[in-house]
Amino acid sequence: MRILIIEDEPNLRRQLKRTLEGAGYAVDTAPDGEEGQFLGETETYDAVVLDLGLPEIDGLSVLRSWRAAGQRMPVLVLTARDSWSDKVTGLDAGADDYLSKPFQSEELIARLRALIRRASGNASAELVAGDVRLDTRSGRVTKAGEPVKLTAQEYKLLSYLMHHKGRVVSRTELIEHIYDQDFDRDSNTIEVFVTRIRKKLGPEIISTIRGLGYSLEG
Ligand code: CA
């Protein structure tokens, strides 16, 4: 899952990036509304953390412009403390959730997790495919009740496929959602990750759909 953070305060931006990467997300950042708006228009994100007070273009204008263009990725806005009018305006402009500054990073992570889950049509925090279970809260994966250790990239790939169970996902889509912008993207590595996941969780977990991509069945 890939997240965009648009925040002008350098320390907070760095800290958010570290925190979300630590939680298993691929993360891009933008320091102002202009760059952030551009990234949101041109790249693919599973969720966006959008500060409202931004240089160049303010957060609300960025959000309105995306929504007017039909972009539907979940957006969580960061508002000033106790500003109920910011919250109302943000939600009306198309935000899916909000968080007031200052906030605990655990709460941000939990809210993003819920937004991503809902956007992909999953009601539960635990995703299930056959005897494989992935707990999006703890990042733990089990097969027939036994814990399975995955690397960070294997987990990102499996998590994306489990969020989109039953749908064919192309290699390009996987690359867009498991790597950040700066990552050296090589589509061959996707095949390598899939092979490793099959070794750990059984060959039947991920089907290759020739010429189209991969699919994970329930
Ligand atoms: Ca700000």
Q: What distinguishing features does this structure have?
A:
218 residues; alpha/beta; Rossmann fold; Arc Repressor Mutant, subunit A; five-stranded parallel β-sheet; four-stranded antiparallel β-sheet; 8 helices; 42% helix; globular; binds calcium ion
Distinct ligand kinds: calcium ion
Order of helices and strands: EHEHEHEHEHEEEEHHHEE
CATH homologous superfamily heading of the largest domain: Response regulator
Distance between the terminal alpha carbons, to the nearest Å? Answer: 20 Å
* Count of beta strands: 11
Strand content: 15-25%
- How are the strands of the largest sheet arranged? 2-1-3-4-5
How many helical stretches? 8
In CATH, what is the class of the largest domain? Alpha Beta
Total number of distinct structural domains:
2
Q: Tell me about the biggest sheet?
A: 5 strands, parallel
Broad structural category: alpha/beta
**Shape call:** globular
Query: Might you state the CATH topology name of the largest domain?
Result: Rossmann fold
Low-confidence stretches: none
